[in-house]
């Protein structure tokens, strides 16, 4: 029950930080994992495994699930940036080939929704950590300015002060 309480408290802290944050921020990213994404990851696990696990497997599943709930809780209040997709431009004309990827994803979700939603949730969880490390070498100018301001505690810091 402590991990569930931690999840709720971290969700409340994330909402409080979101309501108190400064006006200058990069709209392309959420700071910390969004609460709906965190909830979807946990719900997709339940959806993928609706039946109660075998008694022999139950003790092996408890600890990893507990770790996952704690990890997701801390990711919600972390400073790790997750893509918001607010800059996704659907109005620009593109080749019909750009429709193949979303169509293929839709087909995969339709064929096996439980597995694909679980995979999609975990890919989003991982997406906040991995590209951030790769972007350090590239040097995104706006991201660098926002990160510098956040470290200095100035405008653009998302610390809720």
Mean pLDDT: 76
Q: Give the helix/strand class.
A: mainly alpha
Order of helical and strand elements: HEHHEHHHH
Gyration radius from CA atoms, angstroms: 18 Å
Shape: flat
Which bin fits the share of residues in helices?
A: 55-70%
- Strands side by side in the biggest sheet: 1-2
Span between termini:
30 Å
Helical segment count: 7
Q: Spans with pLDDT under 50 lasting ≥5 residues?
A: 154-161
What fraction strand?
Answer: under 5%
Please give the largest β-sheet. Answer: 2 strands, antiparallel
Count of distinct strands: 2
Molecular structure report:
This protein is mainly alpha-helical and 161 residues long. The protein is built from 7 helices and 2 strands, in the order H-E-H-H-E-H-H-H-H. The chain has helices at residues 2-20, 35-48, 55-77, 100-111, 113-127, 130-138, 141-152, and strands at 29-31, 81-83. The chain has a two-stranded antiparallel sheet with strand order 1-2. The model is unreliable at 154-161 (pLDDT under 50).
Task: Put the structure in a nutshell.
This protein is mostly helical and 161 residues long. The protein has helices at residues 2-20, 35-48, 55-77, 100-111, 113-127, 130-138, 141-152, and strands at 29-31, 81-83. A two-stranded antiparallel ribbon has the order 1-2.
Please supply descriptive tags for the structure shown above.
single chain; 161 residues; mainly alpha; 2 strands; flat; disordered C terminus
SSE layout and pairing:
Layout (H helix, E strand, L loop, with lengths): L1 H19 L8 E3 L3 H14 L6 H23 L3 E3 L16 H12 L1 H15 L2 H9 L2 H12 L9
Helix pairs in contact: 1-3, 2-5, 4-5
């Amino acid at each position: 029950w402590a991990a569930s309480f931690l999840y709720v408290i971290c969700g409340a802290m994330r909402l409080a930080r979101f309501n108190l944050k400064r006006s200058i921020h990069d709209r392309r990213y959420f700071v910390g994992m969004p609460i709906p994404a965190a909830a979807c990851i946990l719900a997709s696990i339940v959806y993928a495994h609706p039946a109660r696990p075998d008694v022999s497997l139950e003790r092996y599943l408890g600890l990893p699930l507990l770790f996952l709930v704690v990890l997701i809780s801390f990711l919600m209040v972390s400073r790790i940036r997750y893509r918001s997709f607010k800059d996704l431009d659907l109005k620009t004309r593109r080749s019909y080939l750009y429709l193949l990827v979303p169509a293929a994803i839709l087909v995969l979700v339709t064929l096996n929704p439980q597995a694909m939603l679980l995979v999609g949730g975990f890919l989003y969880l991982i997406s906040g950590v991995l590209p951030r490390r790769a972007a350090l070498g590239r040097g995104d100018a706006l991201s660098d300015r926002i990160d510098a301001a956040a470290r200095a505690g100035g405008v653009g810091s998302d610390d809720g002060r």
